[in-house]
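Suppose a colleague, Dr. K., hands you the sequence of a protein chain of 420 amino acids and asks what its three-dimensional shape might be. Before reaching for any lab equipment, you can write down a predicted structure in token form. Begin with the sequence itself:
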Amino acid sequence: FALVAVLLAVFVGLGAGPAPAGAATLEPCQSTQPTGPIIDLDGELTLSPGRATRKAWKRSGVRQKLIKPASGFTGRPTFPVKSVKYGKPARINLKGGVRLAHGGRSVAVRNLRVVSAPGKAALLKGKLGKRTVTFLRSKGGKRKYNARRGTLVQTGGARLGRGAANLINRRLRLKGPQKLRTGTYWGGFNLYSLYKVTPVEDPTGEVPEIPPDKTEPQDAKTVASAATIKWYVRESFIDYIASGEGTRVEDGATADPASGSNNLVYSFNFPFDTGWTVPESGSGPENTLIKGTGLVGFRFCQNTINFTAANPEIEIDGDDNSRLIFEVNGTDGTAFPDQRAVMVKLIPSRAQSHTVTDNGNGYSTSTYVKIPGYVPAEGTGIFAGLYPAYSPDNDSLPQDQRPDRFGYFSVTYTFPNVDH
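The predicted structure, expressed as tokens, is then:
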């Protein structure tokens, strides 16, 4: 996947997570699965001895044995396809071989290769000693090549080639009526080969614009502290990542205790850095910026997932303008530039709860519990367009069934009642 795909999965499966330190802590996987083309290779050649074949072998006193991985398990000698090169002609290399024995002598036919061209007899070539000869010729039957599917099927009757017959007779010292004759019927010829190359393109996504820094109003109050900056990561994503290397926290971020049936960590906490707020009043909605530090990493090398999200910025400014920003950095199959990106649209009015408490010491504490998150319009490119942006059309759906859902975020911060 591209980080785009990973983030995509992450955010669908994520609800909250600690932010990892930075690019310096992001180490490439030692090895990842190739992202090149998918190659399908299959097939076999079957030679089915007939009555005439066995009669010829009996007359010559010749016994045929198979060289592995060729197999006679079905009663028909079968040679697996080793490699394929389609062209004019097609060349199909086979695994295994044939060993012919007479008395105390034997001769092996190895490096079998079918050479097949339209309108011509198929040739089964092989190496006898140091010489490559046409072992069998297949005539009659049908030939069908499907370029789109990458398949070649050819049938016919296989007969012993002249060069092969001469070498076999010489090596086995077959004389007179014992000699194997050129054109001896060797059996039914049935070839099936599959070779198909499917190009694979890693998912790519549009890198969103770097969001501008939020401007602090003149009447803003400096946030004194933030007791809670918590990201809840959706269980399905954590369960998935746990099949690999899992998650990690750095730079002060911490993981909550493991929970759930799988005993995994699903939520993460970030230390407070700085912030300011303009509390809600009769003249307008709340306008707040809380910055945290710390890093959370997600790593599943087998599936090329390797990225971090760090230093969260929580912007609260009504349902239309609230959002969660992270510094995102990825490598391997989740390559993403080390930069700030809007990852979650927040709707504070839908928080599980929101309270503002006067502490009686000149300070007040604002607490948001589980503000639901959604895919932001400016962030759909991160997910290669696989997830739709927030839409009111989904409001009638249960929260866990919305295609635009994006986890939860909780924050608790303290600010002065008057300007300090």
